[in-house]
Design goal:
Length: 107
């Protein structure tokens, strides 16, 4: 297997897959959700650093989000299971996400 020579920032990864940045941040916060080595923390001199993804890491995000949307409770259920703060769970982007998921399932 070759070495990774290219990564993209988390905001660019979210843009490429057409997802909300905050949702991608929440879903990828648990490193167990992305294949090992596909999410890379970059020390940029700040306390927070920068989260980046390999091409495979972006695919993992897409696959995970698609899978989560099929689960009972969908994104909201996932965030509750991950014990996200209630204020985060109720943010408007999630409400939009939930509505569009229901529409796509015909509910």
């Amino acid at each position: 297997m070759g070495r990774v020579t290219h990564v993209v920032t988390i905001d660019e990864a979210a843009r490429r897959i057409g997802e909300n940045l905050e949702l991608v941040e929440l879903v990828s916060a648990n490193s167990d959700n992305i294949d090992y080595g596909e999410k890379i923390w970059v020390d940029d001199g700040t306390e927070e650093g920068t989260t980046t993804f390999t091409d495979r890491g972006i695919e993992c995000l897409q696959e995970l989000l698609a899978d989560i949307r099929t689960w009972k409770g969908g994104i909201l259920g996932f965030l509750r299971a991950e014990k996200c703060h209630p204020d985060v769970i109720e943010r408007p982007f999630l409400a939009r996400n939930m509505r569009s998921a229901r529409r796509s399932r015909g509910k």
